[in-house]
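Justification of computing resources. Each target in the renewal requires a structure prediction run like the one illustrated here; the chain below, 205 residues long, is used simply to show the kind of job we budget for.
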Amino acid sequence: MIGFYNYSVILTYMGLAASVIGMTQVFAGNYRGAFLCLIISGTCDMFDGKVARAMKNRTDQEKVFGIQIDSLCDLICFGMFPATIGYSMCSNQRLGGAASVLFVLGAVIRLGYFNVMEQERQQQTDAHREYYQGLPVTSVAIILPAVYIMRDVIGEQRFPSFFSIVMIIISFLFVIDFKVKKPGNLGVVLMSLFGMLILAGVILI
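Resulting structure tokens:
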């Protein structure tokens, strides 16, 4: 069997599995279940890097494989999966289609760029990255569920179009070059608490 098999990619694969299950929920019309799966994928992604870095004596090939597999899974989890949700909800097929195309395009450009730059950076230094360039694709695991729980405020009829417009805005934020500071330990804790609030909102509202 080809590939590299170790515990450093287990969470990445779990996040991917959650997103695939989430897409089946979209096809079944269960949007609440789909957004729950998106949150689970985001949670797995939050910690998979820490697990990978904790593994000692990884070979260069294993490190490059980790970068590649993480980006490939991110494209599905935080690119294709949200685009599937957005298009399925939007009654305006042109708007929904345009939002989905731009969203996935922005995600794949960003992830491809990250692959090139991160591999180059790791050859030059072992230091951790302090800033993101542009909006990380994984942030949609919090942003989009947060938008979803606002649907009653926005209105059931207007919400699908509003969601598509948010996706279009996010697609440009993926590729616009601005700095976003990576969260430290306190930031991770705060994001986890906020994520729990969003999770509760998706379940209860």
